[in-house]
Request: fold
Amino acid sequence: MWEIISSTSFLVDFAVAVIRMTTPLIFAGLACVIAERCGIFNIGAEGMMLAGAFVGAVGAHFTGSAWIGISFACILGIFLGLLLAGLTVTLRANQMVSGVTINILSLGLTSFLFRIIMGSATTQILPELETWSVPFLVKIPILGPILFKQSPLSYISYAIAILLTITFFKMTWGLSIRAAGEHPRAVETAGINVFLVKYICLVFSGIFASLGGAFLSVGMVRYFTENMSAGRGFIGLTIVIMGKWHPMGAVLAACVFGAVDAFQLRMQAFDLGIPYHFLIMLPYICGMVAIAGVVGRTQEPAWLGKPYQKED
Amino acid sequence: MKSALPNGRSGEETILPFLEMKNISKRFGAALANNEICFDVERGEVHALLGENGAGKTTLMNILYGLYTPDEGNIYLDGKLVEISSPKMATELHIGMIHQHFMLIPQFSVAENIVLGLPSSRPPFLDIKQAEENIDKISREYGLHIDPKVLISQLPLGLQQRVEILKALYRKTDLLILDEPTAVLTPLEVEAFFKIMRRLTQTGLAVIFISHKLNEVVSISDRITVLRGGTVIGTLKNEGVNPNQLANMMIGKEMTIASKKPPTGKGKRLLEVKNLSALGEHEGKEVLKNVSFNTHEGEILGIAGVDGNGQGELAEVIAGLRPSSNGKIVVNGVDVTHLSPRERIEMKLGYIPSDRQNVGLIMDLSVGDNFVLKNFRDPPFASGQFLLHAKNISINAERLIKSFDIKVSHGKITTSSLSGGNQQKVILARELSAEPMVLIAMQPTRGLDVGSANYVNQCILEHREKGGATIFISTELDEIISISDRIAIMYEGEIMGILPGGKTADLELIALMMAGVRSKD
Amino acid sequence: MNLTWRRIVLSLSPIWAVLTSLLLGAGLIIAAGANPITAYYAIFMGAFSDIWGINSTLLKTIPLMFAGVAVALAFKGGYFNIGIGGQIFLGGIGAALAGLYLKGLPPVLHIFLAFLAGFITGGVWSLVPGYLKAARGVNEIITCIFMHFIAYYFLEYMASGPLMELGAPAPMSPEIAKSAQLPIIIPNTDVHLGLIFAMALAVILQVVFKKTTIGYQITATGLNPTACRYAGMNTVRNIIILSFVSGGLAGMAGASEIMGLKHRLFGSMPFLYGLEAIAIVFLAKTNPIGVMIGSLFLGALRSGAEMMQRSIGVPTDLARAIEGFVILFVAISIALPQWRPDWFKERIDSEKIN
Reply:
C-alpha cells in the first residue's frame, strides 16, 4: 500500500481531488464569512448550496450550457440572500430559526421539483464545465497539472477570497461591513445605513453559497441528487471559526477539510480493515473536534447573532 | 441679573441665533416627550439642557441629530429652515453628537473609528495613512493629542471621549451635542474636560450640554434651559444663578431628603471581605486587587467610583457569579467564598443588578413569576421542590404589588409592559421580601425618575433600619454621599480608602481618590 | 388603515401559515401537471377514508409525536436540538441491541428495558452537543448536524456489520425477540402501543411545563438564561440535563419504530435531520398538546401523499415542500409581532425617554 501512496501519480491524483473537494467548501466558507462579518449567522448556507446545486443542474440540463446553469444558480443565490435578509434584518427573526427554515424549504422544494422536472431519470449527465489551463504554468512538472488546470469555478473561488480580503481590509465598504458586525449603533450614528450593508452582504452570501452548490452538481459530479450538499454548508460554519473570520483563513480551513474528505475517499479503496462507514464520518468528526476545541472565540464579531433595531 | 427676554438673551443683539428649535413636539404613543419646546443656541456658547431622567432632553437632541423626526415644529440653522432626517444629514449640516455610551468600535483603531462613514481621499480605497496624518495634525492643533494607531479597547474612558471629540472636530462640527459627558469621568477629569470645552467654544464652536448634574451645569454653561416633563420651564443666563432655584425648576416640588437615624453603634459584622482579588476576561488582567472591607448591621456602605473601576465585578464576586482568584468572603460568620450563587442566596444575600431588563428580570414572564425567580422551589410556592402552587404564587404577587405600590393591575401581567420605575420595584420587592441580611444594590436608581429613585432609596433606608447591611454601588456621587454611612472609593479594582459619608463627607478627598490619588498631599 | 392592516397581518397564526402553505402547495401541484383539488382530496381520503389510510397515518404519526415532544422540550429551554435525527438512529440501535441480546424476559420488562436502552443511547448522543453548548458555548446547531451525519453512517455500519442477519439481502438485523415487540392496539392494523406512549409523553410534558418547578426553570432559562444564572439556577447543569432528556425522547422515537413497526434494525431510517419534527414544534409553539395535533397533521399529510402519488402521480416530496412552506410562514408569523414599524416601536421607546 505504501508504495502506491507515495507514487507520484497517486499524489498528483490526490492533490487534484483535494482541490476539487475544497472548492465547494471555500464557497461555503466565504458565504459564511461575509454573513458573519456583518453580524448574521448564515445557518441556511446548507440549503442555499443545495438550491444552487439544483438550479444549476436544471439550468445546465435544459440549456445545454454549464455556464448558463451556473448563472441561474447565481440569480437564485441573490433571491435566497434577500430572503434571509428579509427574515433576519427587517423582521429581526431569530437567525437560527431563519436558517433552519431555509434549509427545510430548500430540501423540500428541490426534492419535489427534481422529481417532477427530471421524471424518472435518476442520473443525468450534465454538460461539462471544461477545465481551464493557465498557459506556460501548466507545463511545470508535477505542480503544473495540479495547480494550473482546474475548473473555472475553482479559480473564481480563489478570486473571490482575494477580493473579499481586499474589500474587508482596504476598502471603505469593508470598514463599514466589519463595523456593522461589531457595533451597528455606532455605524448608524456615523451616517451609514446598517440595513443596507447587511442586505448587500447577505445577497453576496447567497450568491457564494449557491455557486458552491452549482459547482457540486455541474462542475464536479455532473448530476443532481437529493440532498447532495450533504452538510457542506454546515462545514462552512465551522470553516469560518477555524479561519478566524478571515477570507484567506477560510480558504486554508477549507483545504484542511477538503484534504480529509479526499483522503477518506482514497482510503476506501484500500482494505484497511476499517469499515468504510467510519471513513466517511471522518470529515464530520474533524468538524466536531475543530469546533469544540477552537480557542480564541473572542475574535468573533461582537454583534454576531444579535438582532439590530434602528432608532426610529 | 435675569435677562429680559424669555429665551435668556438680552434685547440688544439683533443677530439671529445659530440654531433655533421652534415649537418642537414629539409623541411616543400616548406619552408626550417634547411639548412645544423652543430652544436656541449661539455660536461660541455653552448652552446646558438641564433636567432629571425622563424630562425629554435626549429626545430633543436625538431630533436635532436626525435620529428622530419631530411631530411638530421646525429647526433653523442661521435662519434657514432645515429638515434633519438622518444622522448623515446632521453631519452634513455640521452637527455632531457625542452619546452617553460611546459609539466607538473597540477592535478598531482611533483612525478607523474616526473615518468610519466618511468618504476617503482615494475612493474606494481606505486611506488610513492619510487619515492618521490628518488626525495627528488636528489633535495637536486642539491640544487633544492621541495616537491614531491605538486600538480603542486599549484606551481608558477619558481618552475614548477625546476620540469622540476628535471625531466631531474631524467632521468640521459647528454645533456639538454632548449627552451626559461627565458620567464616565473622575472629578479631576471633569475639570480637564471643561477646559477643553472652553477652548473649543473660543473657536466659535457651539455646545449643547445635556446633564442632570446641577453643579456641573452651573460651572460650565453660559445659559441654562431647564426641562421638566417635556416642557421648557425656563431659560436663564448663568449669572449668579442660585442652584436651589434650578433644582426647584427641575423637580417642581420640594424634595424631601430622607432623614436618617445614626447607626446604632457598631453592630454585628454581617459582611466581611478580605483580600479579595479576581481576574478579568482579558489576558489575566486583575479586575479586583486585594479588596478588603466590612459592613455591619444597620449600615449602608457606599461604593463610589467612576463606572468601570471594578464595582460591577466586586458585586458579582460577592454574589457568586464571578470566581475570585484570592481572598475570602464571610457572610454572618459563614465563609461563602466557595459557595454557589444559590447557596449564597440561602445565606440571606440579596442582589439588585444594574441591568434590570437583561439580568434582574425575565421580561417575557409575568410579574408574579418574576417575584419568585429565586425561591420558586421553596414552600409555599412549591412542595417537595417539585410541584408548583400557582395559587400561592398569585397571592404572593398581590401582596407584593400592594406593599411596594407597583403600578400594575395584577400579577399575571407580563413584566415588559411595566415602566422602568415599576420594573425596578419588582426587583426590589423580590429581593427585600426575602429579608436578606446583606443586600448588594448595584446602581439601583439608574435611569429612574426622581419619584421612583426616591422610593428605592427609602426602601434601602428601611432595610437599614431593620438591621440589614447594604452595599450601595452608584456612580452618582450626590446620591452615594447622602445615603451612605461610610463610603469606599474604588479605583482600578482597588479600594483607595473608606471615608465617612453624609454631611461630614470630605468631598475633596473623595474626588481625589476617585481619580486614583490616595491622599491630599 | 395602518391599524387594520396590522391586525390582519398580526393574526397570521398557525392556521394562516398552514393555509398559505397549502395554497403554495397547490401551485406546486399545478406545476406537476395535476389538479390541486383532486390532489388534496386524494391526500385527505388517502389519510383518513379507510382502515389502511388511518393505519398508515397513525403509523407515521407515532415517531413524529415522540420527536415533536423531544424538540418541544429542548426549544422551550432555549436549546435548538436539531440533531434529533441522529438521536433517533441511536435510539433505534439501543432498542435493537436490547431486543436482540436480552433473552427470556417477560414482555413488560423487556419492552421497558428496550425503551430505556433507546432513551439512554439517544440521550448520550445528544449529550455531546449539549455539553459543548453548556460548558463551552459552542453553537449547538452545527454540532448537532455533525452528530447527525456521524450517526447516519454509524447506523449503516451497525446494520450491515455487527448486527447484520446472516444471508440477508440488505443491511438489516435479525428480528428482535417477540417479548420486545410492541403489541398492536387497533385490531387489523399495525398500529402499536407506541402511540399510547407518545401521547402519554405529550401530556406528561404539558403537566411538567405548567405545574412543576422543572417546567418553570426550563421556561425561564429559555427566555433569559442570564437572569436565571443571577437568580441562582445552575444553568450549565440544566442545559446538559435538558439536552440529555430531549435526546432520550428522540431515542424513544427510534426505539418505538424498531419495537413496534419494523421489528428489526435497518440500515437507514426515514428521518432526514428530523426536520419534520421542527416543523411540528413551530406550528405548535412548543405546546405539547399542539405537538400531538401537529404530528397527526403531518402524519396524515405524508401518508395521504403516498396515496396521492399512487393515484395521480404527484411525487410524495410535495409533503416535504409543504412542510417547508409551513415553517417559513410560521417563522414569519412569530417574527412579525416583534417587527414594530416605527409608530408602534415608539410606544415602547417612550418608556426609555431620557
Notes: Chain C has one domain: 45-299. The radius of gyration of chain C is 22 Å. Confidence is low (pLDDT under 50) at residues 341-354 of chain C. Residues 45-299 of chain C form a domain with the ABC transporter involved in vitamin B12 uptake, BtuC fold (CATH 1.10.3470).
